[in-house]
Automatic annotation (TrEMBL):
The protein's name in its UniProt record: Probable membrane transporter protein
Membrane-spanning residues: 6-35, 106-131, 151-183, 195-213, 219-238, 245-262
Main location per the UniProt record: membrane
Cellular compartments annotated: Cell membrane; Membrane
Annotated keywords: Cell membrane, Membrane, Transmembrane, Transmembrane helix
Annotated membrane topology: Multi-pass membrane protein
Family named by the database record: Belongs to the 4-toluene sulfonate uptake permease (TSUP) (TC 2.A.102) family.
Pfam families: TauE (PF01925)
GO CC term, one of those recorded: plasma membrane
Length: 265
């Protein structure tokens, strides 16, 4: 393991995250597996803990700026944390049973999740680029102040949270699609709400992964050292960088990564 290369690579991934908003887990976990030959179970757990710091720092900033919706954050977090604990519980059961190879299962799950998130985001980007006037049928708008709206929000968040607990992927990306589709928040509150719910989700998910004993702090700390300044730099220069060509390139990379994960499994 080259611990000088890890913060350097994490720095560049942090820049991509800051520039495009594409989730770090989709890039950092495959990097740990393919570049540094880290077993998938350790890569997933270490990435969950590493990602938590970035999300917490971001959510505090958005809370201070009042650029989030606390009611939606509360409902999403209620469901996602419960779902995440279920996902971590499933990992515990698989590990204790000894009948299945945890790393093999995680490789396939990671590949499928990254592919799903990438395809959905790519379709959205293609529609915005080539068919700007094309209107998709609108999903029903959810109101968390009603019992039915809160129930549906918690249920959707629980399903997504379970996958985050299992794979570390999509704590932000899939929830952002939910916020766009079901809540239609303005741009500033969309980002702030997404980051805040992800911070709460990852905080509890990381505690769950710590109980698995698969968190490697010699990976987490170099990732922090590289990714945090990278995210800050990426956020600074995003205003002068053309977003769509950059996103197409990153999505193409993610498609190849997801295919390799599934094929290797």
């Amino acid at each position: 393991m080259n611990y000088l290369l890890l913060p350097l690579f994490s720095f560049f991934i942090g820049i991509i995250v800051g520039l495009t908003g594409i989730g770090g887990a989709s890039l950092i976990t495959p990097m740990l597996i393919f570049v540094f030959q880290v077993p998938p179970s350790i890569a997933v757990s270490s990435d969950v803990v590493a990602a938590t710091l970035m999300k917490v720092v971001g959510s505090i900033k958005h809370w201070e700026q009042k650029t989030l919706d606390p009611e939606i954050v509360k409902s999403l977090a209620t469901g996602s944390v419960s779902g995440s604990m279920l996902g971590v519980g499933i990992l515990h059961m698989i590990r204790q049973s000894g009948t299945s190879n945890l790393d093999h299962i995680l490789l396939r799950l990671l590949g499928v999740m990254i592919l799903l998130v990438t395809v959905l985001a790519l379709i959205q980007l293609l529609l915005m680029t080539f068919f700007p006037k094309f209107n998709l049928p609108e999903l029903p708008k959810l109101d968390v102040k009603t019992k039915w709206g809160r129930f549906l929000t918690i249920t959707i968040a629980a399903v997504l949270g379970c996958f985050v607990g299992l794979t570390s992927v999509s704590s932000g990306s899939m929830f952002a699609l939910v916020l766009i589709g079901f809540f239609r928040l303005d741009a500033r509150k969309l980002v702030g709400t997404d980051i805040a719910q992800a911070a709460i989700l990852l905080l509890f998910t990381s505690l769950g992964h710590l109980t698995l004993g698969t968190v490697d702090w010699s990976l987490v700390i170099p990732i922090w050292i590289g990714s945090v300044p990278g995210v800050l730099l990426g956020a600074k220069i995003c205003q002068i960088t053309p977003q769509r060509p950059l996103r197409f390139i990153v999505y193409a990379i993610l498609m190849m990564v997801s295919w390799k994960l599934v094929a290797q499994a």
